[in-house]
Request: fold
Amino acid sequence: MTPALRLDFQFTPLPNTPSLRECAVVSAAGYAFFSDEKVALAFGTTCVGVAAEGRDPVAVPYFELAELSLGNHAITTTGHTYPDFGLFGGLLSGGSTNKEVTSSTTQPSAQTFISLVTHVGELHLLYTGLPPAVLRMLLAEAFTVWRQHQPDWLEKRRKSIDAYVDREGLDEQTRTALKERLFTSLVPAAPPPPPSGLFTGTAMAGDSDAPVRMGVCPSCKTTIPFFSEECPKCQALFGPDSAWQVRPL
Reply:
């Protein structure tokens, strides 16, 4: 009998990566989501959280994520007409300069198909509002963390480091330090608490009037304390099991 597998992930959001709300499920294999169902995507330090309203969020750990891709095959065409005041416009119109020229441009429509291929299945989503190129830049942190969990990518980077160290004749301490950089965390460690009696900004440490770090609720966009467990306006939850986390200001 196969033992039950339980993976517990304490969700820590990436500091500069937005959550994606209102993603429509196009298809799902291996995951309990339905076509056209709306889900939210949140990107953390160890996993991607996928949450549907009224159900427990699903964690997709980066080490199980074999493929993360953004695409859009839909093209929109826009055009405009403007007067041609050039020499040839005047000649072609009998000396007048009121000839009109129509031009058109094509560009991807403002929507992105998000595909997650994992050890256990596939999840394909449609996010409306941004084209793939823009969304790719906003998700740079998530792609960076995902790469850090890919053995093939890491092995290529290690070989590149070895080649550089050997070529430059550097010592083994430098080689080790360079390889450790491959796993540099994108989330800085929390600073230690200041000694009692010292000032922190304009208030004393431990003072009830000390400034509070603020953030934004990803659900209703209200400004709230960054470490809130619940939004006082819309009651969105931000605990360790929630796919939503307060966004830092």
